[in-house]
Amino acid sequence: MGIKDCNNIMDFRRIARRRLPASVFHYLDGGADDEWSLARNTDAFNDYELLPSQLSDVSNIDLNSTLFGQAVDWPVMIAPTGASKLFHRDGEPAVVRAAEKFGMTYSLSTLGTTTIEDAADAGRCPMMFQVYVFKDRGLTAEFVDRCKDRNYAALCLTVDTPVAGNRERDIVYGVSAKPRLTWHNTWSYARHPGWVYRALVRKDLELVNVTSSDAGGKMSSGASEYINSQFDRSLTWKDVEWLASQWDGPLVIKGVQTVDDCRKASNSGATAVMLSNHGGRQLESAPAPVDCIARVADALHDRLEIICDGGIRRGTHVVKALALGANACSIGRGYLYPLAAGGQAGVERGLLLLRSEVERAMALLGCDNVDKLGEHYIRHRV
Ligand code: FNR
């Protein structure tokens, strides 16, 4: 099976599983504890039904939208995920180029394997930088300056990671940038010599945005150990106020779920929220983002842009999130499986399939413009 045989996002997952060492695949694919939130993020979309309005002239479907003050070709963005070069040698730049072709916003993670500058040079799509706040606070101020220099459209603070979630697959398979041999992964590394060569010989798995600090270098100890030793757990909404004053542009808070936290985000200077449980990788039993949209939109749609982040695998998921009141959706594994399966060509095919699904769902729903999507097109299943 190749990327041309993939008909939907989950088809790429099968190729990714074959192409990656087990430790890396499970790092990409897995969630916290019993993975209830991970599964629920996607399953929750099935609790909603779409209500078509027939004979509505759908000869032209308009998906154009805006996000963070920038025009985008459709309201889906690339979520920030660390270390894309773990999954494919072309890493973040390959995804930036695909995002440019599809007219969408790209997000670079603090834990990316490409610098803020190189990601900006890779393409001309709107860029967001996602910040983790390290114990070394000087790093955050440095990120802000570098993003200003490179005209990033938005800055995003992830707030759901004071400590690493309990990702048991990572414990079993021992993910890290440098292969650590365990009973479960030795044979798998032996079957992926190209990946092992890159990890051992080349330098492209470094966390290149944090090299000016003690936090720099490789995640050679493993993701959880890195997060627990480097991230600042003392953050509060006061720090968001500080960040908003430093950045003075669109500020996104990622990893909130309640109306209360979204209101605090807005009061602290944020202009957007990503309703997210980190793709089920942090607090187990946190609600599915899609289930949080309606309440937050009712209370705060005039103060915040609302992004539904997590579980999106199908175009109907995007349409449902928008009908419930989200301004946009973001995808993590939805582009990482295609990246692992086929680099830039894989991501482009994945995005093409997803966008076609959105267009088809809009036509079948009888809605010709994403701005017209609203609660009259959706109901909670009884
Ligand atoms: C992530 N995510 C994430 N989020 C973040 O703010 N900073 C990061 O560095 C990462 N890294 C990361 C790595 C991997 C492998 C995954 C799968 C996810 C979370 C990501 O931004 C997003 O919230 C989820 O991926 C959304 O869920 P779906 O779309 O994967 O279901």
Please outline the helices and strands.
Elements: H1 9-19, H2 22-29, H3 36-43, E1 48-50, E2 65-67, E3 70-72, E4 76-78, H4 91-101, E5 106-109, H5 116-122, E6 127-131, H6 138-149, E7 154-158, H7 168-173, H8 186-190, H9 193-201, H10 223-230, H11 237-247, E8 251-256, H12 259-267, E9 272-276, H13 289-300, E10 305-309, H14 315-324, E11 328-331, H15 333-365, E12 378-380
Parallel strand pairs: 4-11, 5-6, 6-7, 7-8, 8-9, 9-10, 10-11
Antiparallel strand pairs: 1-12, 2-3
The structure holds ligand FNR.
How far from one another are the termini?
A: 39 Å
Instruction: Count the beta strands.
Output: 12
Proportion of residues in β-strands: 5-15%
Q: What is the alpha-carbon Rg in Å? A: 20 Å
Shape: globular
Named CATH architecture: Alpha-Beta Barrel
- The CATH superfamily is Aldolase class I
Please work out how many helical segments DSSP would assign.
15
Low-confidence stretches: none
Number of domains: 1
The CATH top-level class label: Alpha Beta
Strand order, largest beta sheet: 4-11-10-9-8-7-6-5
The level of helicity is 40-55%
Q: Could you tell me which ligands this complex binds, including any ions or cofactors?
A: ligand FNR
> Which structural category fits the helices and strands?
alpha/beta
What is the CATH topology classification name? TIM Barrel
Element order: H for helix, E for strand: HHHEEEEHEHEHEHHHHHEHEHEHEHE
Annotation keywords:
8-stranded parallel sheet; binds ligand FNR; 15 helices; alpha/beta; 42% helix; single chain; globular; TIM Barrel; 382 residues
